[in-house]
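Quick start: load a record and inspect it. Here is Peptidoglycan hydrolase FlgJ:
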Amino acid sequence: MAVQKITSYDNALDGRRLEKLRYELRNPTPESLRTVAKQFESLFVQSLLKSMRAATPGGSLFSGHGVKQYRSLLDQQLASSIAQGRGIGLAAMLERQLLSQNAPSKAAAVESTKHSLTGYRNRPPAAPAPVESPAAAKPATTSQAAPWGSPESFVRSIWPAAQRTAHTLGVPPEALVAQAALETGWGEHVLRHADGRSSFNLFNIKAHGGWTGDTVRIATLEYRDGVARRESAAFRAYGSVAEAFADYADFLRHQPRYAEALDSGGDALTFLQSLQRAGYATDPAYADKIRRVMDSPTLRPGRAELKKMADGTKT
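Running the structure step on this input writes:
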């Protein structure tokens, strides 16, 4: 039996509202989050009305059980009608918070029409414990959710693909690893399909520009002319880390605006600054944030040894 989609709080006596709400929140959408916010505002207004009733003196003529029950139902309906209308402003504020919490974390790109996820870019890069000397550089798993239990395992896992792609593009591999770390929070916030599978989209590239592959759709906040709007955006999805890096390389090479970045002569900072100027991200500190990730305790100590190991496997 299909559960009807929530559309409003038409009647205070409708006992199915919580059931509908729980159903909608299994896979949150901007509409269901708006519903939650309005429901919370409705409950808040009910609480205010109840407090007002309790503080108002009443006579014996209007203090019977039936009258109290009627007032309670009337207050519920009134609160529901207020929340469904213009409200008192609480629902709008709560809705923004819920959208922010339920969207993946690419906050600098929230203001961009090219890359728009909320949360992570505007945070300072994490600085976990120094990376241990890896025994071997292992390729990433190509199915199910990527097994990145720590920043260190994330770096070790994607390093081989990053090095191959860096060689193709003529840029330092640590710059690509650092960029992926910033975009995904060391692999913790990689976009996922509804069934939990990883999209392996390490660079948060949207599914436009003629993309015909798999996609993952999420709720995002976009800023258009300085005004926040709720949108549902499609992002590219891959079957492995290797596919993600290969597509990232194609994405840069087929966009003329990134020609300067690819002509950086192997200098990481020049490459990142050129990416920023070309509009990869609207965050004015984007290149500097990636540079800080490159110099972080997680990436700096281990990258030299990873390079040595990778060079050793070639000989």
